[in-house]
Design a protein that fits this description.
It is built from six helices and twelve strands. The protein is an alpha/beta fold. The chain has one domain: Vaccinia Virus protein VP39 (Rossmann fold), CATH 3.40.50.150. The strands form two sheets. It has an eight-stranded mixed sheet, with helices on both faces. Strands 1-2-3-4 form a four-stranded antiparallel sheet, with no helix packed on it. Helix 5 packs across helix 6. The model has no long low-confidence stretch (mean pLDDT about 90).
């Protein structure tokens, strides 16, 4: 049994061979059991990071978790200049992070370990052209100090963490985004899509990762909420 700062977590292997973590307290996994790596690429990297045409971008991640989304963003940075702001109320202990198998070689492993070793609550360079802010904070009480071009909305499912899927949360995020900003999430529930639309997002359904029929991509088309 591993731990984050306040919860026990269990190391599991997902269908594509990559690790995920299971939280017995919540009866929930950090990633899809059908493939953690594949889910992250399908939901966040391909339809958000690679879809965005801007060369200088700010990214907000709702739920740093294992660091997989941040790690894959770094691996797929290309020639973009990235500021990456990751929120996490329950940081993973380094002993748990060190056992994850997301890296494919020594160089990637060094990058992944650096991601978890960087101090919390201050901006640090993860690699050339990418600044990381690991913020031990709760979205519900946070005041944003910048605007974002991409939002990786990777909170636990609405059934597990309903407070994170309220209209007030999506309105707060909408107001923190630049025009043409993109939000992606694995959740495609009708109530979530309608909530996003209610605060001003233009929402489209996209094919989901393995095990899910659909996912959502929401775009802020104007500057008024």
């Amino acid at each position: 049994m591993l731990k984050d700062k306040s919860r026990k977590v269990e190391l599991k292997v997902s269908a594509d061979g990559s690790h995920t973590l299971f939280v017995p307290e919540l009866d929930e996994h950090y990633h899809s059991v059908n493939g953690a790596h594949n889910e992250s690429m399908h939901v966040f990297i391909e339809p958000a990071l690679k879809h965005c045409k801007k060369q200088k971008i700010s990214i907000l991640e709702i739920g740093l978790g294992t660091g997989l989304n941040a790690f894959l963003t770094a691996e797929n940075q290309g020639n973009k200049s990235i500021f990456y702001h990751a929120l996490e109320k329950y940081p993973l202990e380094s002993s748990a992070a060190n056992r994850l198998n997301f890296a494919k070689n020594k160089e990637e492993q060094q990058l992944f370990e650096k991601l978890h070793q960087l101090p919390w609550n201050q901006e640090e360079e993860l690699q050339s052209g990418m600044t990381l802010l690991k913020d031990e904070n709760d979205l519900t009480s946070l005041t944003f100090l910048r605007k974002y071009d991409l939002v990786y909305f990777d909170a636990f499912a609405p059934e597990v963490q309903p407070e994170m899927w309220r209209e007030s949360i999506f309105r707060k995020i909408y107001e923190s985004m630049n025009t043409d900003g993109i939000l992606t999430t694995y959740c495609a529930k009708g109530v979530v899509r309608r909530t996003m639309q209610a605060v001003g997002f233009t929402v489209e359904r996209l094919p989901g990762p393995k095990g899910k029929r659909e996912m959502l991509r929401a775009i802020k088309k104007n500057t008024t909420a």
